């Protein structure tokens, strides 16, 4: 059995250096070589977690995650903490497996951000003792849905606590990658997502 920390370092190399990290991870899946041991198995299991076809025409949570990781790789130089940012992109939807349910004919994953933070923390604690790094990743996972909640004035918005833990700019950057990481992304939709990012940052920076 391969050492978990060596796998972690190998994943690090591809997340931080590849133009399209998805090529590496998808090839591991294709060749049956993706690590089956905990916690890495939590990622491979995302292949079998469905999403709403309306919001995620790309299919499974794994497909979405790979698209988000590739978008993040393109933009990681804009991040204050590229290492934490890339791992947050990789782990941001771990909470979807336990929260995905069919409700009235719709596939939903309510509170996957909240559950995802807990799962991501345990995931990383298996692999590294770098508490500051773990915190940065997990806070991004926890708050990555806030752009939707804030822009749409939903009751789940919690700007006060978000800004105590994480930079709104980092949340915005991850959220942009998350929103772009889905199928059938047209130029019109791309512009709409950029506008939502700007609305989010405006509201957060004028929060009192």
UniProtKB/TrEMBL annotation:
Swiss-Prot/TrEMBL keywords: Nucleotide-binding
Matches recorded under InterPro entries: HD/PDEase_dom, HD_domain, HDIG_dom, tRNA_CCA-adding_enzyme
Source superkingdom: Bacteria
Chain ranges of the HD domain: 61-145
NCBIfam families referenced in this protein's UniProt entry, alphabetically: HDIG (TIGR00277)
Protein name: HDIG domain-containing protein
Species the sequence originates in: Clostridium brassicae
């Amino acid at each position: 059995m391969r050492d978990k920390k060596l796998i972690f370092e190998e994943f690090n190399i591809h997340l931080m250096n590849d133009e399209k990290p998805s090529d590496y991870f998808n090839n591991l899946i294709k060749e049956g070589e993706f690590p089956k041991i905990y916690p890495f198995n939590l990622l491979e299991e995302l292949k079998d977690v469905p999403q709403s076809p309306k919001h995620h025409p790309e299919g499974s949570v794994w497909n979405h995650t790979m698209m988000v990781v590739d978008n993040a790789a393109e933009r990681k130089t804009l991040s204050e903490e590229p290492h934490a940012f890339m791992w947050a992109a990789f782990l941001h939807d771990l909470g979807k497996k336990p929260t995905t349910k069919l409700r009235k004919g719709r596939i939903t994953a309510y509170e996957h951000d909240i559950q995802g933070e807990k799962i991501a923390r345990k995931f990383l604690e298996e692999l590294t003792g770098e508490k500051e790094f773990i915190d940065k990743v997990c806070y991004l996972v926890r708050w990555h849905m806030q752009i939707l909640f804030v822009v749409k004035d939903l009751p789940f918005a919690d700007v006060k606590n978000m800004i105590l833990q994480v930079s709104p700019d980092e949340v915005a950057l991850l959220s942009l990658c998350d929103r772009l990481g889905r199928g059938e992304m047209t130029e019109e939709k791309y512009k709409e997502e950029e506008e939502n990012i700007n609305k989010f940052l405006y509201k957060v920076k004028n929060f009192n």
